[in-house]
Specification:
Elements: E1 4-7, H1 17-37, E2 41-45, H2 66-78, E3 85-89, H3 91-96, H4 101-110, E4 117-122, E5 124-127, H5 129-135, E6 147-148, E7 151-152, H6 156-159, H7 164-167, E8 170-173, H8 182-186, H9 193-203, E9 213-215, H10 227-261
Parallel strand pairs: 1-2, 2-3, 3-4, 4-9
Antiparallel strand pairs: 5-8, 6-7
Helix pairs in contact: 1-2, 4-9, 9-10
Length: about 280
């Protein structure tokens, strides 16, 4: 069998966030108890899920950020199912909310929750500065075409227009397909893959050889259906991911083990958490 199942927590838009925590306790704790009986973990992907409904609220998943991960895990701890609740981290969602991976991992470490991340979606996000200028990080909130006559459209194609909330200001990145952009990394508008993998090793409590790195392909223009066309795209992205991870492993070994063992200082400052 599998060791874990990934999914979301969701959100009841009719309730406050605190009421949603109670809803989680009532609904998820029994499920996690069943997971414990089967030696399974439930790993929550932290997508805020903007545009997944025709409502205008940006967050349709309360497990979207470290503050709520910790609140949810405390509920699980009270009921003896803390080991069953973990996070499947996707850096593209951090970019979507203006966050950077190193700061998120540092916060988890500072708060004593460096163990929470148990797996990764290797998927990026490239922010369109023009879209942010027009709509901010909340995305397109009006005139999307998903409402008709003052109520949500009943047509699935029109309901799908709610996705403009996200797509107006960013686009998913298949790792390796976006140009190297140091300024975008500093502005938290794209994923710095090397620092992402380095920060995971430095700040999280990981069993690295057994932690999954799952390449998730959601880059629209490259989502071709023909196998012979898609195969080289995926092979190239997976190769990129492996090489970046190997490079991060080498940097970590040099900076955390080899140089300190000989009393040699590590050069430079690197990306500092919370600075951005």
């Amino acid at each position: 069998g599998v060791p874990a199942v990934c999914g979301f927590v969701g959100r009841n838009q009719q309730l406050s966030m605190d009421q949603n925590l109670q809803d989680f306790e009532d609904s998820f704790v029994p499920l996690l108890a069943e997971a414990r009986a089967r030696d399974l973990q439930y790993r929550v992907e932290q997508c805020p899920m903007p545009g997944w409904t025709t409502g205008d609220n940006f967050h349709n998943n309360i497990g979207y950020t470290p503050g709520t991960w910790i609140a949810l895990h405390r509920i699980c701890e009270r009921h003896g199912v803390g080991e069953q609740f973990r996070i499947h981290y996707d850096p593209s969602h951090a970019v979507l909310m203006g966050q950077d991976t190193r700061s998120i991992f540092q916060l988890l470490r500072d708060e004593g929750y460096a163990f929470l991340v148990a797996g990764f979606h290797v998927k990026g996000q490239v922010v369109d500065s023009r879209g942010v200028s027009a709509w901010g990080y909340g995305g397109q909130s009006v005139e999307r075409g998903d409402w008709k006559d003052g109520e949500p459209s009943r047509e699935p194609a029109e309901q799908g227009m709610a996705w403009k909330k996200q797509s107006v200001f960013c686009e998913h990145e298949l790792p390796g397909t976006a140009r190297h952009d140091p300024l975008a990394y500093l502005q938290n508008r794209s994923v710095d893959w090397l620092d992402h993998q380095l920060a995971a090793r430095e700040l999280l409590e990981l069993d690295v050889p057994n932690t999954p790195l799952i390449v998730e392909h959601e880059y629209g223009p490259a989502r071709v259906q023909e196998r012979e066309s898609l195969l080289p795209i995926l092979k190239g992205s997976i190769a990129f991911t492996r090489r970046i991870d190997e490079a991060a492993a080498c940097m970590y070994a040099l900076q955390q083990q080899v140089l300190p063992a000989q009393g040699i200082p590590v050069q430079g400052v690197g990306r500092e958490p919370y600075r951005s």
